């Protein structure tokens, strides 16, 4: 290959191209290396900056004990120079005392050396908290074997953290934990001592904690026993059960409360149960015994209902307003008094509307400024001085007494008392007092009113004139003793003046009415009387009885003369009765002899005459006996021979005696003697006479062909005898004097039966036996006589 040949030129070109390519590659590589160096320098600068501002500083400890410590770490340790060896990290106490430096304590340095040695041998990382001497800074050391890239074979890299704030926070948290623990213990003690069941449920709503009151309420052995057995305070499950409230509180994140019944120590109680959700998902609860409160509410409601029922029965109108001035209650008298309809009152109108409605019905006083008047009445709700009272004069002469009483709850109670009648009565009373005063002064009697202390309060002119008292003396309202001393001068017997004081004391102190009489010196006689008055005073009256005394004396004398004449008349009647017996006996004897034929056989007409004589003699003898009985018993009870008497025997004997007389008149005579008639103590003769008198009275009153009845029965207490007839009956006048022994004998003008001596004698004998006799009769209805005799 020759110079200048194409081949040589080609080779040269190729070499140049290679050189250029190599140069370009070298240039590119240099530029890239430069760029990478710049980037590495920037990254290194950034890392150094980041490391300088990092919260942790790196301390490299080589295998030979040399350390690489940044100046910042030396400052943290309180060292004045950067340590070069591990031993330079500590300073003696003498040095610290001289103020020469800080560093780690000997104990911390020894412990750190042991940690570094262990890390170098086993590669085990470590962590330790140390504190610089003479400083409040706390450091956290975390060390591990250095990586190969660190280029410190056998070395240990320690990251140092400034834990001063963390340690302070930890100390603060420790103190807070201690405080919370104390509070928790105290709160637990309060919960245990709480006088109510309290509990805590976990997230699964199972009991996790209960207090002693809960244990006692469910009668558990201990808290652990209650929790283990899951003893619930409130029975039941499902809707309304204890867990339902807890679930609702947990899900709604709100406190739930409801009243539930529970059995505590065998007694049924009502509890108010509260469930409160907690942030842990559990639920805390407690129960308050509201049984007494519920009973108190029930009693209060019953009292309120009873009070309102009582207010409805009052005559006064009563209305009650709440604190918002709305009507809450009114009784029936209020509705009637103010013409309030129940439909309107049901809307609970306000106080102002009620007053306006009263004004519409003209039940308010007439006032010029009604709004102002209404505002003043509105202040009753806030009256600080207690109740208010005023009088309302309504149109039509109606007077109301209004009492406004503020209530403790801010409401108002109004009482409307209709005093119209009282006002009218007061007016009438004033008039009556004036009339009484005028009457008092013009009475014929002498009057004096004494107080309870014995002093003279009121008197009329007659009282002053009778005793001759001076006006000045009476104006001092003297006591009754002083009054009696002055009055004694007017009496015929001055000692009788004490009667005045005795009568006044009896009326004022003993509250008894008493009286007496006294004679004056001038011959007048007065009757005294003392009457207790309702107000505690006593009324002393004096009535001049001089004329009546004279008349009384005259009447007494005349009465004595009449009594003497009556005794003479009685003696005469008795004597005449005995005298009549002798000729009657002779007439009866001779008539019987004629009737028996001793004087020869009589004609039929003569026999009829003789029988009429005998019947008349028998009747006249009976009348004589009755007259004798009445005259002998004059003024005294008849003498009875009290023996055991069988009344049925007595009644039959009397019936047999009267039967011929009834048969002669053609009467139907019925006799009913019951077994219950029994016996009693009495005079058999007198009792038979009683029955005979009753039967004879019935025979006399029965019409021809009529009927009479004798009926006897009895009870354990008394026996009864009944006699009746179907005759014409008796008038009311005859019935009134049937038992009068002075009743008119014979036949009355009206044709009624005679009122002889039979019934008076029967009454006398019955009453002597302690019994009673009654007569019932009407015109045209017959007569009924009933005798009741007590058992003895």
Written overview of the protein:
Strands 2-1-5-4-3 form a 5-stranded antiparallel β-sheet, with helices on both faces. It has 6 domains: 19-50; 54-162, PAS domain (Beta-Lactamase, 2-Layer Sandwich), CATH 3.30.450; 194-289, Beta-Lactamase, CATH 3.30.450; 296-424, PAS domain (Beta-Lactamase, 2-Layer Sandwich), CATH 3.30.450; 443-544, PAS domain (Beta-Lactamase, 2-Layer Sandwich); 638-790, Histidine kinase-like ATPase, C-terminal domain (Heat Shock Protein 90). By secondary structure, the chain is of the alpha+beta class. The protein contains 24 helices and 27 strands. Residues 92-100 and 744-755 have low confidence and may be disordered. It is elongated and about 240 Å long. A hairpin with a 5-residue loop joins strand 18 and strand 19 (525-532).
Which key phrases capture this entry?
792 residues; alpha+beta; Beta-Lactamase; five-stranded antiparallel beta sheet; 27 strands; 22% strand; HATPase_dom; EC 2.7.13.3; phosphoprotein; two-component regulatory system
CATH superfamily of the largest domain: Histidine kinase-like ATPase, C-terminal domain
CATH architecture grouping of the largest domain: 2-Layer Sandwich
As residue ranges, the low-confidence spans are 92-100, 744-755
| Number of DSSP strand runs | 27
- The DSSP helix count reads 24
Strand order of the largest sheet: 2-1-5-4-3
- Annotated CATH topology of the largest domain: Heat Shock Protein 90
Please give the CATH class of the largest domain. Answer: Alpha Beta
């Amino acid at each position: 290959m020759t110079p200048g040949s194409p081949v040589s030129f080609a080779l040269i070109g190729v070499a140049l191209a290679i050189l250029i390519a190599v140069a370009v590659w070298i240039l590119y590589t240099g530029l890239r290396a430069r760029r990478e160096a710049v980037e590495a320098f920037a990254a290194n600068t950034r890392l150094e900056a980041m490391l300088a501002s990092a919260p942790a500083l790196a301390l490299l400890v080589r295998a030979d004990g040399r350390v690489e410590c940044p100046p910042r770490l030396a400052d943290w340790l309180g060292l004045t120079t950067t340590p070069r060896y591990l031993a330079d990290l500590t300073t003696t106490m003498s040095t610290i005392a001289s103020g020469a430096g800080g560093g780690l304590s000997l104990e911390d340095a020894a412990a750190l050396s042991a940690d570094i040695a262990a890390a170098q041998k086993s590669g085990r990382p470590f962590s330790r908290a140390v504190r610089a001497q003479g400083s409040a800074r706390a450091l956290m050391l975390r060390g591990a074997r250095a990586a190969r890239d660190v280029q410190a074979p056998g070395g240990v890299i320690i990251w140092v953290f400034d834990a001063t704030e963390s340690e302070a926070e930890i100390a603060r948290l420790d103190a807070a934990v201690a405080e919370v623990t104390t509070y928790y213990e105290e709160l637990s003690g309060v919960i245990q001592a709480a006088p109510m069941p309290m509990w805590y449920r976990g997230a699964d709503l199972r009991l996790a904690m209960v207090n002693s009151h809960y244990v006692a309420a469910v009668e558990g052995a201990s808290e652990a026993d209650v929790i283990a057995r899951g003893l619930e305070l409130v029975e039941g499950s499902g809707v309304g059960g204890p867990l339902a409230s807890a679930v609702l509180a947990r899900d709604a994140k709100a406190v739930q409360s409801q009243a539930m019944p529970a059995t505590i120590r065998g007694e049924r109680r009502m509890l108010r149960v509260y469930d409160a959700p907690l942030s842990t998902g559990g639920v805390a609860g407690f129960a308050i015994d509201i049984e007494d409160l519920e009973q108190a509410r029930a009693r209060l409601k019953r009292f309120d209902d009873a009070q309102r029922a009582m207010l409805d029965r009052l005559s006064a109108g009563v209305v009650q307003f709440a604190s918002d001035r709305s009507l809450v209650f009114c009784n029936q008298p209020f509705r009637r008094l103010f013409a309030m309809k129940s439909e309107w009152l049901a809307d609970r109108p306000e106080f102002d509307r009620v007053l306006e409605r009263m004004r519409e019905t003209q039940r308010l006083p007439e006032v010029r400024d009604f709004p102002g008047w209404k505002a003043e009445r509105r202040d009753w709700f806030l009256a600080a001085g207690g109740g208010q009272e005023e009088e309302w004069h309504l149109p039509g002469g109606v007077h109301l007494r209004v009492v406004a009483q503020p209530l403790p709850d801010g409401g108002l109670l109004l009482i409307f008392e209709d005093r119209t009648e009282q006002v009218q009565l007061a007016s009438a009373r004033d008039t009556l007092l004036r009339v009484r005063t005028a009457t008092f002064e013009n009475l014929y009697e002498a009057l004096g009113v004494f107080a309870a202390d014995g002093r003279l309060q009121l008197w009329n002119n007659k009282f002053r004139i009778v005793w001759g008292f001076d006006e000045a003396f009476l104006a001092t309202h003297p006591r009754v003793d002083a009054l009696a001393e002055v009055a004694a001068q007017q009496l015929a017997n001055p000692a009788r003046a004490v009667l005045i004081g005795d009568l006044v004391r009896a009326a004022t102190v003993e509250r008894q009415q008493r009286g007496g009489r006294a004679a004056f010196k001038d011959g007048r006689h007065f009757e005294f009387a003392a009457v207790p008055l309702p107000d505690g005073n006593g009324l002393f009256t004096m009535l001049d009885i001089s004329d009546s005394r004279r008349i009384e004396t005259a009447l007494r004398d005349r009465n004595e003369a009449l009594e003497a004449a009556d005794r003479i008349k009685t003696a005469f009647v008795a004597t005449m009765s005995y005298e009549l017996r002798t000729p009657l006996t002779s007439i009866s004897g001779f008539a019987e002899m004629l009737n028996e034929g001793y004087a020869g056989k009589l004609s039929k007409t003569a026999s009829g005459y003789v029988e009429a004589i005998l019947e008349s003699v028998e009747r006249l003898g009976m009348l004589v006996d009755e007259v004798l009985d009445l005259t002998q018993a004059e003024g005294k009870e008849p003498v009875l021979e009290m023996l055991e008497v069988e009344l049925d025997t007595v009644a039959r004997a009397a019936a047999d005696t009267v039967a011929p007389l009834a048969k002669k008149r053609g009467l139907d005579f019925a006799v009913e003697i019951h077994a219950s008639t029994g016996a009693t103590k009495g005079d058999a003769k007198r009792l038979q006479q009683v029955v005979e008198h009753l039967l004879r009275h019935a025979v006399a009153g029965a019409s021809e062909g009529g009927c009479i009845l004798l009926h006897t029965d009895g009870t354990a207490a008394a026996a009864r005898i009944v006699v009746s007839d179907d005759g014409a009956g008796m008038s009311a006048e005859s019935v009134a004097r049937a038992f009068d022994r002075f009743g008119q004998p014979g036949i009355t003008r009206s044709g009624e039966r005679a009122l002889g001596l039979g019934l008076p004698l029967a009454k006398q004998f019955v009453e002597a036996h302690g019994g009673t006799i009654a007569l019932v009769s009407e015109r045209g209805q017959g007569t009924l006589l009933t005798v009741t005799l007590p058992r003895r």
